[in-house]
Design goal:
The structure holds 2 protein chains of 2 kinds. Chain A is of the alpha+beta class. Chain A contains 4 helices and 11 strands. In chain A, helix 1 (about 5-15) packs across helix 3 (about 30-50), helix 2 crosses helix 3 and helix 3 (about 30-50) packs parallel to helix 4. Helix content of chain B is about 70%, strand content about 0%. The N and C termini of chain B lie far apart (about 45 Å). Classes of the chains: A alpha+beta, B mainly alpha. The interface of A and B includes residues 63, 157, 160 and 203 of A.
Chain lengths: ~230, ~150
């Protein structure tokens, strides 16, 4: 049996349901694993609580593209055009003692080009994020579309950031095909020095909260997704 | 109640279902259900405990849907080992792959133990049974997980 309290215990603590709250908090301060867990749960809890109340009327729309298997493309198989000549970044660099360069590419498989905020993309375009970092880390690619729906493109499954080896201009392990929801595609690429749960980042992107955990950097690219005119 | 407890419902639903849209639907269904039938929660347990049980049941019902089961089986599953960290992502993937094949109590036990990190006592409280019975259920779950390894 684990010596670490369960997520139920932490959720009860955050809800004010625990008579032993002081004991639990003291444990979280003395245990790095539990301190990290409580921090992540509280961040997610706070971000969720800040969201506007839903109408609890219509069922949320299901997006058909989410059920298509994500395109997992080996780094060597993906020809990324323009890596040697990188345009200026649209980074919103946030606090952290670690550094990573993040970039977004878009286009058809085999014909991707770097993009920056304001660039236009069409439904069916593939997005591929890349990074350069001197140390190994963990990352995610999160997007909020024109309808306000926020999802993690990377990881497409699971609850944790994906591991990223150190290196120059490495690609994230998955690329994503854009669906047909038009409007601003607000893409956020995240790199962190330590493993974290992805949910708080999704909540932050969804609510527009500032992404500011220590040891992480983020790059935001707002793309204009427009229908292709015949 | 939505603001205070909605995150734990959504987070755990994502953990069990993986799909963000499926988790959002479970969140909405649970709180719409509470609005329509507030008497569901009789106050005998804490709201957190009540919502843990409701969320788990709602997600397990969806997991038993044939469409979801097909997606889970398609995922790459690492062979089961008793040395696996029960809170690791790999363990979660293996556990999710067999939930549809477990009995109701076995599936709930697996979710509470491997995905929520609960103790036998906490699980017993949620299931309304003895700690010994929880131990028996976990033995059966581990047997099923190991059986998946032999089959693969």
């Amino acid at each position: 049996m684990s010596d670490h309290p369960s997520d139920l215990a932490w959720d009860q603590l955050l809800a004010g349901e625990r008579d032993d709250a002081a004991t639990l908090r003291a444990h979280a301060e003395s245990c790095s694993v539990c301190g990290e867990r409580l921090h992540m749960l509280k961040a997610g809890h706070d971000a969720f609580a800040a969201r506007p109340m839903p109408a609890f009327a219509a069922r949320p729309k299901r997006r058909a593209w989410l059920y298509a298997a994500p395109v997992v493309v080996a780094a060597l198989a993906l020809v990324v055009v323009g890596l040697a000549k990188r345009p200026e970044q649209d980074d919103v660099r946030i606090k952290g003692t670690h550094d990573a360069k993040l970039q977004l590419f878009a286009g058809a498989p085999g014909h991707l080009a770097p993009v920056r905020s304001g660039d236009r993309v069409a439904p069916g375009t593939y997005l591929q994020a890349s990074y350069s970092a001197e140390t190994a880390g963990f990352g995610a690619v999160i997007s909020k579309d024109g309808a306000g729906s926020t999802n993690a493109y990377v990881p497409s499954t699971g609850t944790l950031l994906v591991p990223l080896a150190a290196g120059v201009e490495h690609v994230f392990p998955e690329s994503t095909e854009l669906d047909d929801v038009l409007g601003t595609e607000h893409v956020v690429i995240i790199w962190c020095a330590t493993q974290r749960e992805v949910a708080p980042f999704i909540e932050a992107v969804r609510t527009g909260a500032v992404l500011a955990p220590e040891g992480c950097v983020a790059s935001t690219i707002d793309l204009a997704k427009q229908a292709v005119t015949p | 109640m939505y603001r205070a407890y909605g995150h734990s419902v959504l987070r755990r639903a994502r953990q069990m279902l993986v799909s963000d849209d499926d988790a959002a639907e479970v969140l909405q269904e649970i709180f719409m259900g509470l609005i329509a039938r507030p008497g569901q929660f009789d106050g005998r347990s804490s709201p957190s405990t009540f919502l843990y049980a409701v969320t788990t049941n709602a997600c397990l019902t969806r997991i038993r849907d044939r469409k979801n089961r097909g997606r889970l089986i398609d995922q790459h599953v690492r062979p089961w080992s008793t040395e696996m960290d029960r809170r690791s992502p790999e363990t979660a993937t293996v556990v999710r792959s067999v939930l549809a094949q477990l009995s109701e109590d076995e599936a709930r036990t697996a979710v509470y133990y491997y995905l929520d990190g609960m103790s036998h006592a906490e699980i017993a409280d949620l299931l309304g049974c003895s700690r010994r019975h929880v131990g028996n259920l976990l033995e059966r779950v581990v047997g099923r997980l190991a059986g998946e390894e032999r089959a693969s």
